[in-house]
Amino acid sequence: MLAKRIIPCLDVRDGQVVKGVQFRNHELIGDILPLAKRYAEIGADELVFYDITASSDGRTVDKSWVERVAREIDIPFTVAGGIRTLAHGRELLSMGADKLSINSPALMNPELINEMVDEFGQQCVVIGIDSYFNADSGEYEVHQFTGDESKSRRSQWQTKDWVNEVIARGAGEIVLNCMNQDGVRKGYDVEQLASIRRHCSVPLIASGGAGAINHFTNVFKQADVDGALAASVFHKNIIAMAELKQQLIDEGIAIRPIEQGVL
Amino acid sequence: MKIVIVDTECANLTSVKFAIERLGYQPVITDDEAIIGAADRVILPGVGTAAAAMRNLHRKQLIEPIKALTQPTLGICLGMQLMTAHSEEGDVECLGLIPAQTKRMQVGDRPLPHMGWNNVRATNANPLLDNDTDPYCYFVHSYAVAKDDYTIATCDYGDTFAAMIRKDNFIGAQFHPERSGAVGRAMLKRFLENAL
Questions:
Q1: Region B139-149: what's the mean pLDDT?
Q2: Domain that holds residue A162
Q3: What is annotated as the active site (chain A) (predicted)?
Q4: Can you point out the beta strands (E) in chain B?
Q5: Which of A105, A256, B52, B80 reaches 20 to 30 Å from B68, CA-CA?
Q6: Which pTM value belongs to this model?
């Protein structure tokens, strides 16, 4: 049975892993490579690296670490952050990245999604969406340039419409980051994710809000997402991967058990 | 041990190369017919579309040299699909090394692509995977080969499809051993080190 994926997310800034609260006040977590290796060893199903400064600074991700990660780990990983051109995408894939995640550049130029899909195949193209619940309007709004507080702003899109748009353009997977929940560890936005799931025909990954094991249980059981992404609970050892996976298995959720040294 | 990764100009060449290097070997990525023909093991990787990959192989004049290979040859993901006779993806004639067809997956209301870790059930005839553990392997694809006489492992997603196929020296894996953790590592090691 296809397993639900547990996906540690490493926010990268200037070659280091950082983590902020609701996209702000970034604190240093550590070097990329040891963290990536450790997560692969302890049973992560996949990794995502977001260069959170890239889009907002007009820079592209510093790429040298991509190849170093690809050399060391044997689970899939996605690179995100400021990927605006086919040439840049090709370079990251050729360094060993499995998937590219596009966020703000896709909002600026939606045609980029079609071009990436045509060039690299649907399976390589992930669309990251930062969705903010506006309590005044009662709408979920898509935001862009969220890596930099001073530039972060809402886009013209409502979340549901943007999801439909990127799927129509060939996106292979969607990571829905629920901004109101991000970094505060109060649980995933199950309601929003369940609503998006109903009309999302590609894999859907939950992001934002993981703080306890039951948050993972809830999002898999109630929103039926394909994977759950989390950062601080893993970086700060609030949740142990082995315990998380065992508890999810005990709850009857399809999970890849942690490997017991095959070789 | 001469190990060649055929340069299909597809995206996962590097991760396949790194996976082989982690096992202590030095593979060569090449589209040189002579070097491919002289290898002890050949790997045919692939990510992208069947039509684009076949176009690349035609342009590089590698169709006949690949068909003529007699040494153990492993097709990975799209590389496995290229080993079949035909792919629905772009309606393209493939290498025809294994008489099977690649078709769009029928998965009902499940998400496509089929992406993530899924159980692989190996048959008794599978030389690369244990047949008693149903290990999780990493898949990412929307097209698949139906289960038939050449199937040496299956996987379920909506329907049962061929996770691995084999005919003579040609073996295909729909999943990515280079991205399948310790299971994939063990499988690649067997492909390189066992008599097949």
A1: 95
A2: 5-250
A3: 11, 130
A4: 3-6, 28-30, 41-44, 73-76, 86-87, 92-93, 101-104, 114-119, 121-122, 136-141, 143-145, 151-157, 159-167, 170-173
A5: B52
A6: 0.94
- Based on the residue annotation, tell me whether B178 is a catalytic residue of this protein: yes
Residue A256 is assigned to a structural domain of this protein? no
Give A262's pLDDT tier (boundaries 50, 70, 90). Answer: very low
- At which residue do the structure tokens 């006779």 appear? B85
Domain of residue B89: give its range.
Answer: 3-193
Looking at residue B57, which CATH number applies to its domain? Answer: 3.40.50.880
Determine phi and psi for B155, rounding to 5 degrees: -145, 150
**How many domains is chain A partitioned into structurally?**
1
Catalytic-role residue among A45, A51, A130, A226: A130
Residues of A in contact with B138 (CB under 8 A): 75-76
How near does any CA of chain B get to the CA of A183, in Å?
25
**pLDDT confidence of residue B65:** 97
**Would you call A148 a catalytic residue per the annotation?**
no
Which CATH number characterizes residue A163's domain? 3.20.20.70
Average pLDDT over residues A204-216: 96
The tally of domains found in chain B comes to: 1
Is A121–B47 a contact, with Cβ atoms under 8 angstroms apart? yes
Please confirm, yes or no, whether A224 is among the known catalytic residues: no
A74:B178 CB<8 A: yes
Q: Which chain A residues contact residue B140 at CB under 8 A? A: 76, 98, 123, 172
CB A48 within 8 A of CB A35: no
Q: Determine the residue among A204, A249, A262 to mutate to test chain B binding: the one whose Cβ has the most chain B Cβ atoms within 10 Å.
A: A262
